[in-house]
């Protein structure tokens, strides 16, 4: 029997996560998804693509944690992994990703810090824009789980929100986090490049590659590149037509603008040593 091909991540008509929550209180990334945005990673689609290229997906057993709308899942499937397994705690997200990958992957509802997957069962673990949303203990637990699931020599690839420079003033950093949390309605905790590397190394992983990109999530140029002109125009129409949506997007855009020199998208690929 031939396998059912994966669908476009943007083509599913299934409900978005948190669709029942008022726009005024919903998490910022899902507000942007309601507006029609499909690339929700801080460094954009190009940084995600570079990360996946360094992860080595072809012929690998791949696990993706918190795949969200399934945009990266679709890109992973295109690289012909030996297997693809997604873990997402949100049932709506899990259903959307299942529609994206079709018979070319498996999607399970579960926790990133406790996947239920066998030890040393994956060659690659991928996670984007999800560790940032965790506190220190939550971050460490998820990275430890990724390391547990990886086979020796396996790679862990992440794309998260970073702050710069490494010696950023602590008081200013605290204010940045507070303003960001107030704007996106998620207790986001971005970290410096040094701190992200330390997090990976704390789980026994060796960092092989690091890259950054401007945090331009709501910039016109980035949106045209990531969403296409048609997608950008769709987002613009949706925002213009909905007062509550427009207010939230403007609020987030103002915060991102205020700290645009201090925030970056950051991607890392690390491997689990052979011994």
From TrEMBL:
Any matching Pfam family: Methyltransf_11
Cell cycle recorded as keyword: no
Region of interest called Disordered, as start-end residue ranges on this chain: 1-21
Superkingdom in the source lineage: Bacteria
InterPro entries: Methyltransf_11, Methyltransf_Superfamily, SAM-dependent_MTases_sf
Residue intervals of the Methyltransferase type domain: 64-158
GO molecular function: S-adenosylmethionine-dependent methyltransferase activity
Assigned keywords, A-Z: Methyltransferase, Transferase
Gene Ontology BP terms: methylation
SUPFAM superfamilies referenced in this protein's UniProt entry, alphabetically: S-adenosyl-L-methionine-dependent methyltransferases (SSF53335)
Name this protein carries in UniProt: Class I SAM-dependent methyltransferase
Taxonomic lineage: Bacteria, Bacillati, Actinomycetota, Actinomycetes, Actinomycetales
């Amino acid at each position: 029997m031939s396998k059912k091909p994966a669908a476009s991540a943007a083509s599913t008509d299934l409900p978005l996560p948190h669709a029942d929550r008022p726009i005024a209180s919903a998490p910022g990334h899902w507000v942007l998804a309601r507006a029609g945005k499909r690339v929700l990673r801080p460094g954009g689609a190009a940084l995600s693509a570079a990360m996946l290229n360094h992860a080595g997906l072809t012929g690998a057993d791949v696990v993706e944690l918190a795949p969200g709308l399934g945009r990266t899942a679709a890109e992973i499937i295109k690289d012909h992994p030996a297997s693809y397994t997604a873990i997402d705690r949100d049932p709506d997200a899990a259903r959307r990703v299942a529609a994206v990958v079709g018979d070319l992957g498996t999607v399970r509802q579960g926790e990133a810090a406790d996947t239920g997957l066998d030890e040393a069962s994956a060659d690659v673990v991928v996670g984007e824009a999800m560790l940032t949303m965790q506190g220190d203990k939550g971050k460490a637990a998820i990275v430890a789980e990724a390391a547990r699931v990886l086979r020796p020599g396996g790679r862990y690839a992440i794309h998260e929100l970073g702050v710069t420079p490494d010696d950023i003033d602590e008081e200013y950093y605290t204010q940045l986090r507070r303003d960001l949390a107030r704007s996106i309605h998620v207790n986001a905790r971005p970290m410096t490049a040094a701190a992200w590397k330390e997090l990976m190394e704390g789980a026994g992983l060796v960092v092989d590659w690091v890259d950054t990109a401007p945090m331009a999530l709501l910039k016109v140029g980035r949106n045209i590149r990531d969403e296409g002109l048609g997608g950008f125009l769709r987002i613009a129409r949706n925002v213009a037509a909905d007062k509550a949506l427009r207010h939230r997007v403007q609020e987030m855009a103002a915060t991102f603008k205020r700290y645009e020199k201090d925030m970056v998208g950051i991607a890392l690929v690390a491997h689990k040593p052979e011994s």
